[in-house]
Amino acid sequence: MSLPLLEARDLRKHFPLRGGVLQRTRAWVRAVDDVALEVRAGETVGIVGESGCGKSTLARLLLRLVEPDAGRVWFDGEDVLAALPGRMKRLRRDMQLVFQDPHASLNPRLTIEDAVAFSLLVHGASRTEAREKARALLGRVGLDPRLYGRRYPHELSGGQRQRVNIARALVLDPKLLVLDEPVSALDKSVQAQVLNLLLELKAERVLTYVFISHDLNVIEYVSDRVLVMYLGQVVESGTAAALADLPKHPYTQALFASAPTMDPERRMERPPISGDPPNPINPPSGCRFRTRCGFAMPRCAEAPPALLPVGASHEVACYLYAADAAPIPS
Question: Looking at CB atoms within 10 Å, which of 24, 80, 265, 275 has the fewest?
């Protein structure tokens, strides 16, 4: 098999909490802990989990927008973390990020056309070439450059601003797009339009996506494979179809059970998961989900479970599926 386009191993990022007169480190927020993933060319890998589970931090670690405390990242066979500034600038042409907030991620002082063309100017293109390509991309994402090109971000709707962000990410002809909650700030009808646009662009340009969202419906619609994160760690991974048909981890089961449904026979009478996520400054020992899990056992507090294969391309970090585990209650 060919090498993955993007590969990460044992990524870790802890943020210091400082206080006092000397601003000494009092504690650490464990945002990402020993996360690994592989993304093959042309694939869409979805990352899903509750707010605060480390999804956005992981996205920035993959693109080296935040330096990890430990771990390795390879892009197209090249060690990203070892790249010098000049080489890193070249790598960034092939790895682009679409941010969650379409308004905050655009410079209010730049017109839409200039915002899309800016990256090309930074990478040495002429102003004429940059503007021509910016206009072509604006047209491709559904914004007539003659009508919208000279407008400013505040003159556009949320969906239009996100289309601008997508055009800006594509202007350098990248191989990989990391999309951090790209439709969470949009209403449902606009979400569908933007998602369909992303799927069309992926097919046209042979792109690879890492798609981050807390919405299971969105993740299931766009993804080939899915990673489920909880409190900085991956608790389950597999194909989108496998996780939708038979989720294994109690947390994944709770996520699917909490998704809204129009079926009156599937009305929710009690919450599928209780309590709030633990504090990432001092997470529980062993399995981090054990304090909210109905199947918790004494061994869950002793050591974190490793990801175990439970099917073809399906892994779960749960002692319920260990070789010596008792039968799972039905």
Answer: 265
